[in-house]
Batch of 3 targets.
Target 1
Amino acid sequence: MKPVEQRLCFESQASRIERVREDTDPARPHEQSINKAAIQHATRREAPRRSAAKTWLQAIALTARLEAQPHRLFADIVEDWAQRQPGRPALLSDGQSFTYGELTDRINRYARWARHLGLQEGRTVCLLAPNRPDYLACWLGISSVGGTVALINTRLVGRSLAHCIDVAHADHLILAADCVDAFEGARPHLHRVPQCWSLGTGDRRDDLDAALAAFEPRPLSSAERGDVTIDERALLIYTSGTTGLPKAANVSHRRVLAWGGWFAGLTDASTDDRLYDCLPLHHAVGGVAAPCSMLCAGGSVAIAEKFSAGRFWRDIERFDCTVFQYIGELCRYLLKAPASEQETRHRLRLAVGNGLRRDIWETFANRFAIPQILEFYAATEGNFSLFNVDGKPGAIGRIPPVLAHRFPTSIVKVDADSGSPVRNEAGLCIACAPGETGEAVGRIGKANSDGRPFEGYTDPAETKKKILRDVFAMGDAWFRSGDLMMRDAQGYLHFIDRVGDTFRWKGENVATSEVSDAIADCPGVLDASTYGVAVSGTDGRAGMVALVVDPNFDFGILREHLSCRLPPYAIPAFVRLCPALDTTDTFRKKKQRLISEGFDPSVVGDPLFVRDPATGRYRSIDRAVYARIIEGAIRL
């Protein structure tokens, strides 16, 4: 039983979100019934937006004093809602659904199982399973008694998968039937094989479902929970690994609570909301920020196993969703899909996510009848985030001046070639003026001070690389985001590119994201990835793009399209036609292989082309043409 003061604090927090309705009859996961909540929510969709100030204040109110209850974890929030509305849907999916009461019972079984195995005091278990409601119950339960859960990417294979398991230093691994083959392929590369617990494999040995059934679902006492505080590690979440192997980022209980509270406040989440989540649950946004925002508010989360443009709008309607979580490439895929009746036949009031570029923002909102878009910027390991609560197309956020002390961020000048910060005569970094592009950094400090903690990675060396020292004062420390941004005259921040992706050509900085966005709008282009390649005898790197095209693609149309959209120096000098592009499971392009192979036809099996700067036409590259480029006989 929770102390009375904790209960009162929860009542106050919940009331800031929205009072729970007296009618808590659970709606069936796939019913389309018109009830009191639907009528209220339909009215709410047409209501005027909250002011930016109210949005910020609500988010701050939900996260302001986490340290006042240092032993209150996110599982406690779920349990409190379960006591108030045990029959209301919490997590929904095609194959499995939990009410709040069922979710709390499942969390408690996982917690007791973890205690039985000694998964406490920072010991780690790896979780390798696809998207499903039990995924959240698993890590919420194990982490509530002090264990750390490493959320493993289900798309990894071989050495990459083995690397992620190894760096977690886990004694146990929870393995779903869908992932057995991938794990067996990684097993020979493991330094140490953890004990495996099977979910749905049919293997009676170490059957996790059977093991969980042996434990009671009742809440744990304070003594059983142990001395677990919000500042201890709850999760390991891995970076995407677009360059090199993934890194395991430490995520504390404090950050889980902060992410859930922030997004609940920013999205104005309530018990009437249902969020559609088709992003990977092993990532910070899809697996923590999105579902925890709804669970924080007593709402529901509809979980799809993966994103499908063909099923997206059918699922939105079928689950009766009011909010969905996006990433930018997901929006592009939806825009490229054929029109359907279902794409506007919904009760959506909000789309929340990151990476929605300005060039498709309004087109996306208008075609799919989305009343509001909340764009944000965040990184799993980052110590700061940005939010565009005003809905300005193309901006990733704006920090109100009155809150600048709470969110100390800056943009510093960096050298385009080396990626290193530019320093003045005193050895300090130089802040960018409005309109200038530089790397975004966040001041590192203690919680609720003039900065935010940086929890780093399991690898201290990798942690050290992300800390920039002596930035604006000798001895200070700032987190390096690795992202290039620009602040406009109104104070809105805009994402430009990743440090290292932007390259210098003909004396100008070229942002690969800008070039890819322009090319993606060209008729016949299905996908594009832009990067810079070294050319002997020239300074900087020449632009190159790998394209996936349809049968109607035409180089003449591409030439005319790019001449209208890009300055001459930004138009790619080389084109590679690929059957498909390698991406992470959040659709980020993997470029390292493309960069290393360059435009050498003896290395690249795909068709290659070079642009004639005089005519703008692209011609095929064979070995003779390649030799002339290297010799400088063909000027770029």
Target 2
Amino acid sequence: MKKLLLVLLYAACIGSAHGQAFAVLLPDSLSKKPLDGRLLLMLSNNTKAEPRFQINGGPSTQLIFGVDVENWKPGTTQMIQANSEGYPKQTLNEIPPGNYTVQVVLHIYETFKRKDGHVLKLPMDRGEGQHWNTAPGNLLSTPQLIKYDPYSDKPYFVSLNRTMPPIKEPQDTDYVKHIKIQSKLLTEFWGRPMYLGAHILLPQGWDKHPDVKYPLAVYHGHFPADFGDWRTIPADEKLKPDTSERFHITGYNKITQQENYNFYKLWTGPNFPRVIAIEIQHANQFYDDSYAVNSANIGPYGDAITYELIPEIEKRFRGIGKGWARFMYGGSTGGWEALAAQVFYPDEYNGCYAACPDPISFDHYTVVDLYKDKNAYYLESDFKETPRPGMTNYLGHISSTLKELNQLELVLGDKSRSGEQWDIWEAVFSPVGKDGYPARIWDKKTGVINKDIAAYWKEHFDLTHIIQRDWPKIGEKLKGKIHVYVGDMDNYYLNNAVYSAEDVLKKLKNPACGCEVDYGDRAEHCWNGDHSQPNYISRLRYHQMFITKWAEEMKSRVPKGADLTSWKY
């Protein structure tokens, strides 16, 4: 009790000296050692969910503030001051007075001694897919109601009092298996054991045809908890219907279940191509996946996936194990990954279907031209500050600016540690900065673009530029293998880069590209080339769409003597 009174007295003094503040206690009962991490304070004016689940880039977001903590000793407090980074209000003093539900989370960092000599403090993925609000081992407080007064000089007191639970591992079934391997390449890079995993959907009859080897269908996307869009039982007739805010549909959960069951019936039916389909788990210290390329900041994930994980899967589950018998598909992040891996490993894969890919040309880095624009947040003007948009809907209505999205990331974690979209692009594409963290493509507060970093991005990860630059060397290996699809009203303006890419691909010669680029009229993120169905349906059919398409198309791109029959029983 005496110790707690001393803590409160200290907090009161600090708060009085610096204006409005929150004092957060780390109890002895939650940790036996000092901790590093990002301390996040959230305030919400509704009770629909815990505040930690109400932070987003749209108009419905609630308030969040963040500070770094290092060597935080149990039994002591950390302060979140009026000048701490905030979103969407930038300071605590800007919050209107009223009743709020308050919650704090400590997103714990681990110390890494990387191969390049840099020592970094980063949040390791712990099986949740790099999400600060559900990461096992993170500390948090029980939400509590306060009456907030921005003019008061007395700090509010909050105590961390519980730990986020572990994530349950998925279980093997007759069709779906799971694999996890330690990567030698990534372990060497990070100086500690690093793992790659995958969820594997086996073809119908796999166990009854022990001598057959199968092609490999690689689905790229965000962190999968298990193999997605798969269900072996019909939709639950008693399921309480939900409402999809994105698609304005009631009962979308039941539609999803039925679509997943329909895929199971197709997969096990008589005419579906017999392939092994996999979804990769490669969450890391910066995001829910690695972008499947070699990166100066994240490590050699491209090599680790292509030369360690995939061969191991083919070895264990009887894959053909040749580049002609592998292909990739995916949307958004997965769309970029499918195209990037095809470009960087042209001999290892025999086709890619990239739907709504992340920016594949950096002259349209969503709405920013990294090579010509001076500022990412505002249009160039002598007298105006017109903000660039960050998110839109199919009618062009803006829900967030680019600066707002980046401000949220800065609150969640500095030094590219937010675990969100703009920071992972920076972590993957940038060189290592002087402090060991990713070099900033632009100043996170002002939006001023670093042209030296943009030049590095161009030569290493601008896929359109790289295809054009390297076409004399890789053209024969890539012709006919590239397919790109995007809605012309993509919510994140990803169609802009595809326009640039299409212009380049059409002009490629010796050989001609033979590439496919297609657009969905008024279609949002993530349209995938299906003109026959609305987006809310086609987004659930990636496997059945692209596996059947590839099985027919690949016949023109296989070596003489390739086995095209044994796996088509």
Target 3
Amino acid sequence: MNLNLYSEPFSKNGNLAGEGFKRLLGRPNLDLLQTLVRESLQNVIDATLPGFAPEARIRLRRLGIEERAALTGVVLATLPQGLASREALQNSTEKEELWVLEIADFGTVGLSGPTEADVPPAPDERANFVNFLKNVGAARDSHQGGGTYGYGKSSLYGMSTCSLVLVDSQTFELGQPVRRFMACHLGDAFDVDSSTPGPRRFTGRHWWGMSGEGDSIAPATDENAIALSKSLGIFPRAETDSGTSIVILDPELDFSSLEKLGPELVTCVLLNFWPRMAQATNADRRLHVTIEIDGETIEVPSPEAFPPLDLFCRALADVRTGSANLHKIKSQRPAKDLGRLAFAPGLSAPRHPLCAPGSSDVLVNSSHIAVMRPVELVVKYIRGSAYPDPTLEWAGVFVCSKDPEVEEAFAQAEPPTHDDWVPNNLPKGRQQTMVRVGMRDLRVHADNFVPVRSLERSADAGGPSLAATSGQMGKFLGPVSSRGAGKPTAPGRIAASVKKGVRVTALEMIGLSIAADGSRVANFHADLFNDGSKGPISVLIEPKLVVDGGGIDAVGVPDHLIPTVQCVALPSHGLMTADNALAVGLLEGQITASIRLVEGAAITAGARILE
């Protein structure tokens, strides 16, 4: 059974032309393949059925002889009258080797709902079919989902040399399983001369399916759809395998170097979706992705085995569990909690063999904050100051608040490709202020995580080098990214919460710097909690040498090997001392400590309360 072609005419009140649809993405910061992967997998997550773990399969393959015959003789049996569209489709289908790029999902709702755009969905249905294949700019209908208005689907057509996609979906209609198949092409607007009723203008949007009621087109369904899918070699599905397969015809890829495409896809998937692929992510939220290139399956490693994403996973775990080391990002007017920020420093581990470093500076040496909404899809990475020693790196994670007003503000600040937060995308008012303040504070945190003076001095050829010292200090960065690629270890147990009382957390190294006299300094911070129950107190900083991984006191150690405290401070209250002990009285806040390093030796430090 051949499919029927429907070419959309302009209505008397106007339509969006096909070339305009393709330009909706504007000029994204990401390349087309990254945009395609982000948009497609984001849709998978948003469409996941309750209780199911989202699953996606990405496959690049060549069509066989019978599959090509089904494409040209059944699906595209009738070509558009527009000359540009006809030539583009013929040029692709007549190539000696015809490739297709498939992106399929399982455990999702599929393209459900009505097949005609003027029919409202039932109360318990979503208009997925018409929003994906026919409508443009429909508002998101999943609570705090990753997408907003669906413009990114134009990347699917942009990836096709001839702007053609085939869609096969196992879904539900009024609670009953149904299979749907349709093809869609975006071309240029064109005119057709006809004596009856006269010349007519068409938008350049074309669909292949079954003739619907009146002036409309419907998908092939059930047995017809299954037969079409099988004849084209699309992933097979049972009625219980709800989801959608999207086939991009003649993709814009470099087929002369297919060995590079696997690492590019793996890297793109992990850089954008590692929060939903981490081992600590709940099983029903964890995204599973498989990749196949020309018959070869490529295993996608876990982010914990893909440095530096293991550091980002550590930081995200702190955000999720409400670690004491979190930074609260707030706005004053309006008075809103905008979200939580956590950092994880570590050693720069060897990169995974499937890593494609040229795709992102995050993978070269991480000094970035990954920002995301509560759906936990990476929006972008904010670059900050790096350690002067390339063997060290750090990762930060910011998740905006689930507060509906805050989440909506950040969602609406995203461009169609969801790869940035742009305050100017919002009208002046509360939402724009929240996004502007949040982005400003995140940039400040990114720039100040490593002391700026450290970077300035390290760039001075005449200044002392920090490389050897910072290399030694790497072991004091906590659980570090030093294991490299391989089977990840199980995440450690989270310590039980402690009542506030009077206590100081363990010192955490935050960077290296150069003192005014040229000596090397390690900078630490810790959180001081003080409910006043012990009266006025002091905080004592105790530096120690490290021998075989353990700290030792300075008893019997030569003076030149004794680390010394340069200063201890409580910046939020303007307190500072050059002594080991800082009298804080009844105050609390973040304690900072700077300790002079010892040439050729490694140090650690502790902090305790003095009553």
